[in-house]
Design a protein that fits this description.
The chain is α+β, with helices and mostly antiparallel strands. The protein has 31 helices and 51 strands. The strands form 13 sheets. Strands 13, 15, 17, 19, 20 and 21 form a 6-stranded mixed β-sheet that branches. Strands 27, 34, 36, 38, 39 and 40 form a 6-stranded antiparallel β-sheet that branches. It has a 5-stranded parallel β-sheet with strand order 4-1-5-6-7, with helices on both faces. Helix 16 packs antiparallel against helix 17. The longest helix has 37 residues.
């Protein structure tokens, strides 16, 4: 490891006390004070020191720091907290004064290619380093600034040089007690050429001084010519120093000695008299700096700049003195101190010494330690008492080394002998000893963690040392969000540590992954809001950028810029904001295949940056530019912010609650709102102050509002409302319908007529999260044959909309009317508007053409067809039909209501219309009968209570309605200009908001091309009845099931009259339990109806329907093509319950049509939900419309007070028992070896189809046997005659209409009573035969009689039985008798077990009549 390079702030501090004649000589030669002159010769090259083991340590540069004792005395009494605060403010003011020049210099060097000097450093960090390293005032927490040597300087021009030297020696020094004054005293005699003493006399004087004060003396002969002055010699600039605080500005906060040195005084606001000194406080020349003072002193010669007016001989003489002072005096003295202090340190670290010191500390020994004098160069010690600390004797040349133990401190500070040992060994290069002592100090909590990173080799432990040093400064940190800021001393010390680490550790090691030194700077900065801490963040960002961490550097630049903006240093803040902006826009390296970019259709070089961060940076830049007067660039930044984010970013300045947390009740401000408001304010100000200068900025909106792909041309015959997919579906249905009748196509010419208004439906979408206003919205058109695309053709009128307000994220369709007075071919080129009546903008309405892949060159690159433009052909009016509703008010209907409507049809063309068709949506239930206007509730024949309804039983969509024009008009065709009304009935079957979409297809008489027009009516349907059905087996021999219908009036105030209740089924017929006659249901009331259901013997189409479904399902499971045949027709048995005169037959055309449409909608929706993997277009060829076993309910209602009527169709219960009719098909499909497929999705779909078929209604499986036990029978018996037999009847009914069932009844002989029952029923004592067997044919019932052997009176529960059922195969047609012994039993392998249902306990009561008598 190479020896570390210590920062200049860790070099020996040498104080100089000069007599007044020295100052006069230097002023006469136009030279600065003596400390400034000597500082120019630091550092010294090639200095060698020795360690405690006498190992030589070469130093390529040995730095020194020289200062005036008077300055140190004046500064050391200032409170450290106050001084640290002044230092931070002083550094901030220097940064503020120089930031303009720095930014200009950095930007100019960037434009010119970059200066090499600023590639690895920055001017602001160099300024902070110089300010920190220029601090020379001693601190109570460390000894680096404590004086190491004191030079007493006189000249031979004095009246009595020996007396002057004696006065300097006897001067009392005004230092606080915690300042360690263990230092080397050195005597300097300056012998200028104009001295009254000759050279021999000067030599004699020097010898006398050496004899009296020791060998640490030096005679410095200098020429110092004054006429003329020597040429200026450039020298390094001196480090800046904190200006000294005036005495009256800060009272003394530490005790100061009096002139006698024996008594201390207390601090007060009135400054005490200065200590006695033989030196007058004369005016001093200006210091050696780069800047001229504002008021230079009046003297004949003024020193200026970083130069010295010295001859070469004088320079050599001074350099020789400085080197001899270091090599012959300072370094040997420091080495001697290290050796002696190391002995004390080693002896104090031995085990007995530590043990005894611990014993004394723990068991009450005095903590006062005595200082034992050590040998020195003189016979007397210079530190022997409190007074001698401030007054040195006259016979000692070198102050002795006080022996201080490791547990004692010197005064009120933490600078003890061990720390001075560590500091001296560090300066001398004895790093082994230094690290050992620093580690000891760190373990004892006396510092050292800040120095160890400078001396140790790179390792992860150094980061822990840095963290510990910073944590020791700040102490325990409060919780986050409390607004805590460390004291000024802690901030300044952290800044000093950071400067030392950055300067003293090699750059390569500092930025390595082991140390990550840039993080140390960030931790040192913490959350302080001061310019120096901001510079720490900025330099950490600079180092991170060098290291390659661009994202981290950008973030730290942001933090630095925010802190500088708060302190008012705006030029540097803007520079850091720009740096962060550039880094966030710099794309990261992406080593991806070129195929990735091609597949994603993205450019590999296009990088949008981080949209969540960049807008905030641009906003801050815009605000700073606006406040500094650069409105033009501010407007550009604000305009760039008006663009949507690809991902949601953080809110700006969220409102804070009292405890610092975000309040969820307050609305969060919108980023777009803030950006938009700033843009409007800045742009208005710019236009008001600069006039038309904004036009030269070429401002363009970064967002677009027009959705070109969704913009359409709408003609008068097109509907505005309605889903576009619904219209395409209707047009496709017409094409499919007419393809089997003719070859005429449905014309979609998209042509407008002359003098007819058409509209450009401009779709506007606001991408911002704030309301915007577009003024003067219009579109531009041009003739397709014209070359000028800017002017609208003659004879074309285009509407201009004044203001259009778009809400946040709002999408609106704005129709812009266009009318042409002559035939022309128009192209809609672009839309034009003004953004908030401020900024004109245009947007192209062209859509990029498709990508071309025809040739190899096109496939290898990206080649697109020409842009697609919106074209409109305006021609002479031909065949036109306008349609609109007669009453277009808001329509609110009740569910199931019949509503009579009329549509006006007007021939606005020039040719007649001879053929007219109407199409409606699949779920829209319309009845159009031009020949009859009868209501669906009317009947032409005498009503009956039952009827048979023929149904096609297919899911095929209904065909378009053909409207004979002669039936609704006085002529067979509609001439130009004529009008006609088309009446129809709308059935509101589905509740909610609905759109009635009607497509009218028309043409001229003959085989002309078809044209179409659209009309839409929106209506709302509200439910008024809630109908539900249920079914249960019946014990009666006359009926198999009881069907319950529950009707609830859910309106709040209307009474609803039920006119008729009808049922429909292919296998079952119903009969009312109670006749329905004028049932009125009040609001929030419920009515129940019971119907008995029995098998319909005439239903012959159920078997055909089941076989049809099985055949089609087999084809689906075997993956064979499904033939397009449709289900066979079915007959439905209809039963009506109502008053005889008001019964509505279901075969009425309108009623039958509505029921068919409603049933088709229900079946289609249920089929699509149950079989999602079977294509929808195959449903009509696989599944029928009706399930024969289902009982559908039609309920006719009426509101007499409102004269409104309607009906509700409800899919009722499925009756009978199912026996898994498709089980064999499913098993065969599961066991069949399927074709292998490379797609897992295909296999999953096949499994899903199997599950759907197994669970569908055509494969349902039920227990066919219903068990009924006769309940409530009372038997009387005289038990005096003994026990009796009580008969019990068990009735079994086979609910299956097709399959027999074998039933086995098992009775328990001696059942145990259940203790959990609370009805006090006795267990049934069955006797006699306990097992009964019976075979039941389809729909057959049988009653089995068992016996109870009752020995006493009571109520006996009729439970404790089990019924086992086995389903058989249906008999052959030649063997209808299932019970015949000749008929073999064929089991279907379906078995079921029944037990008494829970909660239901039939019983029989046995009464003892003998006891009654």
């Amino acid at each position: 490891m190479a020896p570390p390079t210590l920062p200049n702030s860790l070099s020996p501090h040498v104080c100089i006390l000069a007599s007044p004649d020295v100052q006069q000589v230097l002023e006469g030669a136009a030279l600065p004070p003596l400390p400034d002159i000597l500082q120019c010769f630091s550092p010294l090259p090639q200095i060698t020191t020795r360690t405690t083991s006498l190992t030589s340590v070469p130093h390529s540069a040995f730095a020194l720091r020289f200062s005036d004792v008077v300055e140190i005395e004046n500064a050391v009494h200032e409170d450290e907290e106050q001084r640290a605060g002044r230092t931070m403010d002083w550094v901030g003011s220097r940064i503020s004064q120089r930031c303009h020049r720095w930014v200009d210099m950095m930007e100019s060097s960037t434009i010119e290619g970059g200066a090499k000097i600023w590639r690895d450093r920055t001017p602001w960090w160099e300024e902070v380093k110089r300010c920190v390293e220029g601090d020379h005032v001693p601190s109570s927490s460390e000894g680096w600034n404590h004086p190491v040597s004191l030079i007493l300087a006189v000249t031979t021009t004095a009246a009595n040089p020996l007396q002057a030297l004696q006065d300097l020696t006897s001067r009392a020094f005004d230092f606080p007690p915690w300042v360690d004054i263990t230092s080397l005293r050195y005597f300097l005699i300056i012998h200028p050429a104009n001295s009254p003493l000759a050279d021999p006399i000067a030599e004699a004087l020097f010898n006398a001084v050496k004899k009296q004060y020791g060998l640490h003396s030096y005679l410095l002969p200098l020429h110092l010519p004054t006429d003329p002055l020597p040429s200026p010699v450039p020298v390094p600039a001196l480090p800046p120093r904190l200006p000294t605080l005036a005495v009256h500005d800060s009272p003394l906060l530490t005790p100061r000695p009096t002139g006698s040195g024996s008594t201390f005084i207390t601090p007060s606001s009135t400054p005490p008299p200065p200590p006695t000194s033989p030196m007058p406080q004369a005016a001093r020349p200006p210091p050696l700096t780069n800047k001229q003072q504002e008021n230079p002193p009046q003297s004949p010669t003024v020193y200026a700049g970083s130069t010295l007016r010295l001859t070469q001989d004088d320079i050599q003489q001074i350099g020789r003195f400085v080197r001899e002072f270091v090599t012959m005096s300072l370094v040997p003295w420091m080495e001697k101190c290290v050796v002696e202090w190391n002995e004390n340190y080693s002896s104090s670290r031995r085990l007995p010494s530590r043990l005894f010191s611990s014993t004394r500390r723990l068991f009450g020994a005095s903590s006062t330690t005595t200082s034992q004098a050590t040998p020195s160069h003189a016979s007397n010690t210079s530190v022997s008492s409190g007074s001698s600390r401030y007054t040195h004797g006259t016979s000692g040349s070198v102050s002795s080394i006080a022996s201080v133990t490791s547990v004692s401190t010197m005064g009120g500070g933490s600078v003890n002998q061990q720390r001075r040992l560590a500091e001296f060994s560090t300066i001398l290069g004895d790093y082994k000893l230094a690290i050992s002592v620093w580690e000891t100090l760190r373990k004892e909590g006396r510092g050292g963690s800040d120095i160890l990173p400078l001396l140790s080799s790179p390792s992860p432990a150094l980061a822990l040392h840095a963290d510990h040093a910073l944590a020791t400064l700040r102490g325990p940190q409060p919780r986050q969000g409390s607004g805590f800021e460390a004291p000024a001393v802690a901030q300044y010390r952290a800044l000093v540590y950071a400067v030392r680490w950055e300067s003293g550790i090699d750059r390569q090691d500092f930025l390595s992954s082991t140390l990550e030194g840039e993080r140390w700077l960030v931790k040192a900065a913490s959350s302080a809001e001061e310019p120096p801490t901001a510079i720490l963040y900025a330099h950490a960002a600079f180092l991170s950028e060098i290291r390659g961490g661009r994202r981290r550097a950008a973030y730290w630049y942001l933090v630095a810029a925010e802190k500088l903006e708060k302190t008012g240093i705006k030029p540097l803040a803007m520079y850091f904001f720009r740096k962060a902006h550039d880094l966030y826009q710099d794309p990261p390296p992406k080593e991806l295949s070129p195929s990735f970019w091609e597949s994603e259709d993205r450019s590999s070089v296009r990088w949008e940056g981080f949209p969540a961060v960049l807008p905030a940076i641009e906003h801050e830049l815009g605000r700073l530019l606006y406040t500094t007067g650069d409105t033009a660039n501010a407007v550009k930044y604000f305009l760039q912010l008006l663009k949507p984010l690809t991902q949601p970013g953080p809110r700006l300045h969220p409102p804070q609650a009292a405890n610092g947390t975000v309040s969820p009740l307050l609305p969060q401000p919108s980023r777009d709102k803030v950006y938009l408001e700033d843009f409007r304010v800045a742009f208005k100000h710019f236009k008001a102050t600069e006039g038309d200068a904004w036009k030269k900025l070429n401002l363009q909106l970064p967002i677009s509002f027009c959705q070109a792909k969704q913009t359409r041309i709408r003609f008068p015959g097109d509907a505005v409302q309605g889903d576009s997919a619904a219209w395409e579906k209707l047009e496709g249905d017409w094409t499919t319908f007419w393809s089997t009748r003719g070859k005429e196509k449905l014309g979609r010419s998209g042509k407008a007529a002359v003098n007819e208004t058409f509209w450009v439906d401009l779709v506007l979408r606001n991408p911002l999260d704030v309301e915007v206003v577009l003024s003067g919205l219009t579109v531009s058109l041009r003739d397709s044959s014209a070359k000028d695309a800017d002017a609208n053709p003659d004879g074309v009128e285009v509407e201009v909309i004044e203001d259009v307000a778009l809400g946040p994220k709002d999408t609106r369709t704005i129709p812009i009317a266009v009318k042409s007075s002559q035939p022309v071919s128009l192209i809609v080129t672009h839309a034009a508007y003004e953004f908030f009546s401020l900024l004109p903008a245009t947007e192209s309405l062209a859509v990029r053409g498709r990508r071309l892949n025809d040739t190899p060159a096109q496939r290898q690159g990206k080649v697109y067809a020409p842009d697609v433009l919106i074209k409109v052909e305006v021609e002479e009016a031909g065949q036109r039909l306008h349609a609109h509703f007669v009453d277009d008010r808001h329509l609110v209907l009740a569910q199931g209501e019949y509503k009579h409507q009329r549509v006006w049809l007007t021939n606005s063309g020039t040719r007649p219309i001879g053929e007219l068709w109407v199409l409606a949506g699949e779920e829209d239930e319309l009845w159009i009968d031009a020949s009859s206007g009868d209501s669906p509730a009317s009947s032409s024949s005498s009503p009956t209570s039952s009827e048979i309804l023929e149904s096609t039983n297919t899911l095929a969509p209904r065909k378009p309605y053909s409207i004979p024009i002669g039936a609704i008009h006085s002529a067979p065709q509609l001439e130009p200009g004529e009008e006609v009304q088309l009446p129809f009935i709308l059935h509101a079957a589905h509740h909610g908001e609905q759109d009635l979409c009607m497509l009218f297809v028309f043409r001229e008489p003959g085989d002309a091309q078809f044209h179409c027009t659209r009309v839409t009516r929106r209506y709302e349907v509200k439910p008024i009845l809630k109908v539900s059905t249920s079914a249960r087996p019946s014990a009666s021999a006359d009926q198999t099931y009881i069907v319950n219908v529950e009707v609830e009036n859910i309106t709040s105030s209307s009474n609803i009259e039920l006119k008729q209740l009808s049922t429909m089924s292919g296998l079952w017929t119903t009969s009312p339990q109670v006749q329905l006659s004028n049932v009125v249901i009040s609001s929030r009331q419920v009515a129940n109806f019971s119907l008995g259901a029995s098998p319909w013997d005439s239903g012959q189409s159920a078997r055909e329907t089941q076989e049809f479904v099985a055949r089609k399902i087999r084809a689906v499971l075997q993956e064979d093509p499904v033939d397009p045949s449709e289900p066979p027709p079915i007959q439905l048995a209809c039963t009506h319950v109502g008053s005889g005169t008001d019964i509505v037959p279901l075969h009425t055309p309108a009623t039958r049509h509505f029921i068919h449409c409603g049933r088709r909608t229900m079946t289609a929706q249920a089929t699509a939900a149950s079989h999602p993997y079977i294509p929808a277009h195959l449903h009509r060829a696989i599944f029928p419309l009706h399930n024969p076993a289902t009982v559908d309910v039609v309920l006719f209602w009426e509101l007499p007070a409102q004269k409104r009527a309607g009906h509700i169709l409800l899919q009722g219960p499925t009756l009978g028992a199912g026996h898994a009719a498709l089980r064999e098909l499913v098993r065969a499909a599961e066991n069949t070896r399927v074709k292998r497929s490379m797609y897992a999705e295909t296999r999953r779909e096949r499994v899903a189809i199997l599950h759907a078929v197994r669970a569908c209604e055509w494969n349902r499986e039920d227990d066919p046997v219903a068990v009924f036990v006769r309940d409530g029978e009372v038997v009387e018996h005289d038990f005096r005659q003994g026990p009796c037999h009580v008969p019990v009847a068990f009735t079994f009914r086979n609910l299956s209409l097709t399959h027999p069932a074998r039933v086995t009844l098992k009775l328990v002989h001696e059942p145990e009573s259940d203790p959990q029952t609370l009805d006090n029923l006795l267990p049934p004592p069955y006797g006699g035969r306990l097992t009964h067997r019976r075979v039941l044919g389809p729909s057959q019932s049988h009653t089995t009689r068992a016996k109870l052997w009752v020995t006493r009176a009571g109520c006996y529960a009729l439970d404790s039985w089990t019924v086992e059922t086995e389903v058989g195969e249906p008999p052959e047609p030649s063997q209808p008798d299932v019970e015949s012994t000749a008929t073999p039993w064929r089991s279907r392998q379906l078995r079921y077990i029944q037990r008494p249902p829970a909660g239901v306990r039939p019983h029989v009561a046995v009464v003892d009549v003998g006891r009654l008598g």
